[in-house]
Amino acid sequence: MEREARIKKQLLxxxxxxxxxxxxxxxxxxLPESPQLPCFPECVEWILQNQQSxxxxxxxxxxxxxxxxxxxxxxxxxxxxxxWDVGSDHITRGLHFxxxxxxxxxxxxxxxxxxxxxxxxxxxxxxxxxxxxxxxxQTDILGILHLREVELKRLAGDKSNGREAYMAYVAEGLGNxxxxxxxxxxQRKNGSLFNSPSATAAALIHNYDDKALNxxxxxxxxxxxxxxxxxxxxxxxxxxxxxxxEKIGISRYFSSExxxxxxxxxxxxxxxxEEIMLDVATCAMAFRHLRMNGFDVSSDELxxxxxxxxxxxxxxxxxxxxxxxxxxxxxxxxxxxENELILDNIGEWSYNLLTENLSTAWAQRTSIxxxxxxxxxxxxxxxxxxxxxxxxxxHFDSRGSQMLKTEYxxxxxxxxxLALAVEDFxxxxxxxxxxxxxxxxxxxxxxxxKLQFARQKMAYCYFSAAGAIFPPELRDLRxxxxxxxxxxxxxxxxxDVRGSxxxxxxxxxxxxxxxxxxxxxSYSEQVQIIFSALYTTVNQLGARASAVQNRDVTxxxxxxxxxLLKCEMxxxxxxxxxxVPTMKEYLQSAAVTAAIGPTMLAALYFNGQxxxxxxxxxxxxxxxxxLTSICCRLLNDSQSLERDEGDEEKVNSVxxxxxxxxxxxxxxxxxxxxxxxxxPYMRELLRLVxxxxxxxxxxxxxxxxxxxxxxxxxxxxxxxYTSQVEMVSGVDAVIYDPLELQS
Length: 743
Fold this sequence. Notes:
The chain has about 750 residues and is an all-alpha fold.
């Protein structure tokens, strides 16, 4: 499709929007051997050809609003034309536009480009020196010039490295106030100052430098007369776009392109390329994406921002760059070792900065605020993919502009991205509704709805499947996931709520024999319904999985169910005998009765890949299952305390911690301790999921991470699974409610 082709093209070769502001500064660079001529006449020509009808220059406006950025870009273009004595009509119209909108300059509610209070007044002074006259009052001119004085006075007391870097970054606004020999120490290997064409051009105007000239020549040779505000920016653009594809749920359409990008990014990471290492946000993004895709990257590369103080002493810190803070926070969440103290430190200070500022004027006036809110609202470890996709689609900024020294568009296919995401999500919902209808019929056909004692949780079970395993083509995986969850819930309720000792023994006996219900033997209706549903469904799933895997795997399903019922029986016996297990004994059985095993095994077999025959015997599989099961059990326990407390025979990890301390550890303290104890298991699980090699393919290992995330979704704040209302809105959002896009 043309739409996907455009997206792929932008992914592999990002096209940045043109910057009138930077183009103007590059246009002002004189030819070294003939200073009376422009070094880059194509930039001058672009300015002449691209004035707006209202007399302005700047990013094409989707509305009629005038911003400080547009006024600044217009003034820069006027200066460039005046510098080479061309375009007198353009200059007149530009000056008229500035004069007409001069009041915006002093409006503090209007967002300003970086360094505006330094660069704009300087350009005003430069224009006056050139003999240009603005159609404004002298008091307006004086007020604007005063902005620069105030800003320079504010910065004068700051002796940090970050302040020096900032002064070099806004070099075009300082003129002779800047020590150009000092500024050039921030020059990068490519010859630029901070990859900024405007700052580099200013340095070249004031202090000739071969490397700076070569940088601009390379830039203009590649892009023509229209210069971007940052160059190069490929890695950041590509990683940001990858982020967007994942957030709105369509990354699977571009897996080949994404792999190409990640391979190249990893190569640059190993070379410690400046485009990655000298930009905090890009470095954090690269680290996160590379690690989450199995590349071996060390968090040591983020050591220079391990403390809030070192970040504040950087250029991004001086700029209070919210994007950098947010990316560092995201990067801090992908730790896979308890020894990654750098990530722990970054996570702590970046979280504090983000939350402290959410309720301030900073938050109200920054477009990135919604991304901050979504990141904090959907934590990395408790994010249900399809809910997150829906939120991201509904809050999608189709313009997607960002502000540096001028506004720019890092991605010019946002409308295509949104259209594809809407189409994909809407189609998925129709698939989900059909599947849920099929599952509701399955419940009735197997008479599971007749079990009055059992929690009826089909909607929740299917919601968990569709929310985590969302691609429409994975129907069998979602169906098996939901069926296993429902059957596990019914079995658990029989053991915990309604089943007599005789009924429990009968069910275990039937499962051990694994034959159709024998005629002539009398079993309670409950046992007959449960075993019949279990026997029929597991055999059907086994047959379908065997066809997919090209070998008989039904016996593996049966073995998991046998193990589950044995542990259920063990726990029932403990309750009957009033035996209080040690924490180790409890977790050995409780991890199994969390009932993750049957669901995960079926999911692996239906995930679209043929697995090695040794998978279920391999240590990797058992360890992934153990860690996932423990996480789910501990999270469940932390939110079912009140329910379990009401049953004198029932134990869980919270009550055990309280009991074995002799009552010294209060139950609420024990609950919090159990919640915190989940994180080491979760971190080890992530390490195994990301580890290269092993018998399981990467997509299979990621299923365990998805299940762990689901347990956080259901049990982070309450017992969402048992609740009749807690997850209803999530069910509706993923399966029924249509998208509500921003106007």
